């Protein structure tokens, strides 16, 4: 009796120990991931110009400076603009491509699938440099103003958007029940109407999540943009880098916090419409 | 409303014949059931009527118009899918309205037509629910309302009851049948369940390997099956195998059986369990009488199955009404077995 009791007790305490360890590791991982964000946020409220510990006091002056800095503001709007346009174009490519990849068997399907995911695998600096060479050569060959233009930059960012959206849209297309399309056609909808009225709402979470991730990876991109921007046309990450070359005051921390807030807001708003956690 | 004609309809996938020379004349207002095991071509046939599969050869005519080359959305068929295929992002009312919108019904009329269709299946009060908030049986009725709302020429049912539990299946079977009769809509249903076919159909078609085995009313198929396959697929049968020589059938076990129909060569006699009479008494002249020994007894509630061994090879199963405690025989008893002369006989199918 007593042996049975103690082994039962042992089992329970083992399980409790297991759960405790799991929680501890999960917390550790969270702290590890969030620590830089916490420090950046803390730093952004420091009073003194040279970041040193402990802070001499707290103020909001760096936020005021960040918002007052015209270069940051211009860069922010350019980044947002490039991100939105690149995401829109990326979706126009990714949606048909995902349909072709999931629904039709054709030679080279695997190759095209890999090609579309390639920008995710290639180091950003390599991608940026290749795009730079390509755009310089095309500009010389065609004498069109491609290099250093808004559309040249957008073109590079479309390549950042495509892999994310193709991945997420194909995933939701694979999970989509095609008898729903047949039902729509049986009720009198032609294939395009069936797609628009039934398939698109069905895969919307995938499309939104794809757009979201595409936009975020474009908005935060540094390596590709580095090669494609020209003076007077800078994205936010590059503006931050350029500022850092001369100064390391908490303005950078403040602008980073603002950037994080914007992305969090975008995530929360998106999540209200589609549960991103279900697709990603 | 309209009849459906299938003329020499075939569908081949490479060497595989999913359907072969299917010819059917489904009259206006008829409830026709396509019955067969999986892979027999019944679903292929249904999908060719709906337009989802383009036939290799043959024609489909609905209401006198050749629709063989028309895509699904230009045909007037309402299909109830096996998994119902309700649009998950639309309410019940929006699901039902979809077909009406596609058929350019004026906006002002859609509301009342949706209500009428939902009332047909007694779901008017759930119009604003989403499919996921409903039970399987309710979803099935929404699918039915959606398929009927735009008043198609033909109603197509693809195993509509297979996802329901046994009790609900009985109920829905009668609902569908009475609705169909009330509307008088030509209906084609696919099923692998012979009981479903027997209780719902005006006429039924038994299919196997892409071909029609037999077409007829329930009575015709049950009483006069023309092949061993139909006799075993529709209802139950005991088979006595043998051959005709000199106009008489002699089983492999040595029984001489008198039959009304006479063939030549290898043949099979099919015996329905309820047509076989057991008795301890001597032969009557009602038909064929043999002596045998009770091999096993299975109790089914209202009836009892008694397996009787007639000789080393031949045995039959007789169904006797359960009349109470001392009804019938027990295992090992010697009994006489009688069955009539007008039993179905057909040439043995090549093994």
UniProtKB/TrEMBL annotation, chain B:
Q: Where is the ABC transporter domain?
A: 4-234
PROSITE patterns, A to Z: ABC_TRANSPORTER_1 (PS00211), ABC_TRANSPORTER_2 (PS50893)
Q: Which UniProt keywords apply?
A: ATP-binding, Cell membrane, Membrane, Nucleotide-binding, Translocase, Transport
Write the Enzyme Commission number(s) for this entry: 7.6.2.11
Tell me the protein's name.
Spermidine/putrescine import ATP-binding protein PotA
Per the UniProt record, the lineage of the source organism begins with: Bacteria, Pseudomonadati, Pseudomonadota, Alphaproteobacteria, Hyphomicrobiales
Functional description taken from the UniProt entry: Part of the ABC transporter complex PotABCD involved in spermidine/putrescine import. Responsible for energy coupling to the transport system.
- Enzyme class comes to translocase
Q: What is its main location?
A: membrane
GO MF, one example: ATP hydrolysis activity
- Give the species this sequence originates from: Jiella pacifica
Q: How does it assemble?
A: The complex is composed of two ATP-binding proteins (PotA), two transmembrane proteins (PotB and PotC) and a solute-binding protein (PotD).
Q: What protein family does this chain belong to?
A: Belongs to the ABC transporter superfamily. Spermidine/putrescine importer (TC 3.A.1.11.1) family.
